[in-house]
């Protein structure tokens, strides 16, 4: 727990990322894809580490809506219909701090299972 408190939360115009700044001076830009595949929802995280689901095919996912949950979190609604993750301020801070490590691990997991960041039937843009 960091007791992180946000000073600004902004969804980018194209809805492909969210920038969050904190009172401690930390500021993170997190892609919609990263937030979606690391969703704190039970659907993704499961009820134990062994239940965690690897979510593939979300390269083009976008943030549709940010809904406040009390004064401690927001619920993100994605354009693929996923909307059950409650992102606390500490969760955002942790995702920002661990972005590089988590993203690398995610890509390695996809490769080890022969999965893609691209949705089935889509063409990868370069």
TrEMBL record:
Pfam families according to UniProt: GBBH-like_N
Gene3D superfamilies per UniProt: 3.30.2020.30
Keywords: Iron, Metal-binding
InterPro entries: GBBH-like_N, GBBH-like_N_sf
The organism's place on the tree of life at top rank: Bacteria
GO MF term (any one): metal ion binding
Annotated ranges, domain Gamma-butyrobetaine hydroxylase-like N-terminal: 9-92
Protein name: DUF971 domain-containing protein
Lineage: Bacteria, Pseudomonadati, Pseudomonadota, Alphaproteobacteria, Hyphomicrobiales
């Amino acid at each position: 727990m960091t007791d992180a408190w946000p000073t600004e939360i902004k969804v980018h115009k194209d809805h492909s990322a969210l920038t969050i700044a904190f009172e401690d001076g930390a500021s993170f830009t997190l892609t919609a894809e990263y937030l979606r595949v690391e969703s704190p929802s039970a659907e993704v995280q499961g009820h134990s580490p062994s239940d965690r689901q690897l979510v593939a095919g979300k390269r083009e996912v976008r943030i549709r809506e940010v809904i406040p949950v009390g004064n401690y979190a927001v619920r993100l609604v994605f354009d693929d219909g996923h909307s059950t993750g409650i992102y606390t301020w500490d969760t955002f801070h942790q995702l920002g701090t661990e972005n590089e490590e988590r993203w690398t691990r995610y890509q390695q997991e996809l490769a080890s299972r022969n999965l893609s960041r691209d949705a089935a039937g889509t063409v990868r843009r370069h």
